[in-house]
């Protein structure tokens, strides 16, 4: 296994851990908050816990960026910029669509998952494009 593959696997592992923590914290948070209505410090800590895995995701991306070569950095930045644009369009156009179809408002907690889906799709399309161009 070459260094590029090891770097990719490290990134996937770091991102998977951060994402699993985020899902776990969010899922555990709701039942806790439903039973604890007081203004305790513990409740405040539970309210803020989802922030930390989100920042761990950013740290995973930065660490991956620092490990890869210049060409991969260029491709990564292209993918991230495309994904950010798509995610912003989806997130900002949703309220207008929601008005027309009487949908519930989109919670900010969906911002990372929307970005992640765009990122995965753009990465797969980029890999497919690279294979088509080299064939």
State mean pLDDT (0 to 100 scale): 90
Q: Which shape, going by the Cα principal axes?
A: flat
Helical fraction equals over 70%
Number of strands: 0
Structure annotation, total helices? 5
* Structural domain tally: 2
What share of the residues does DSSP label as strand, in percent?
under 5%
**Helical/strand content category:** mainly alpha
Largest sheet: none
Residue stretches low in confidence (pLDDT < 50, at least 5 long) are none
Distance between the termini: 24 Å
What is the gyration radius calculated from CA atoms?
18 Å
Would you kindly provide a written description of the structure presented here, covering whatever features stand out?
With 135 residues, the chain is an all-alpha fold. The protein folds into 2 domains: 1-68; 69-135, no CATH class. Helices cover 84% and strands 0% of the residues. The protein is built from 5 helices and no strands. The protein has helices spanning 3-35, 41-48, 51-67, 70-101, 111-134. Helix 1 packs antiparallel against helix 3 (51-67) and helix 4 (70-101) crosses helix 5. The longest helix is centred in the N-terminal third of the chain and has 33 residues, at 3-35. The relative contact order is 0.10. The mean pLDDT is 90.
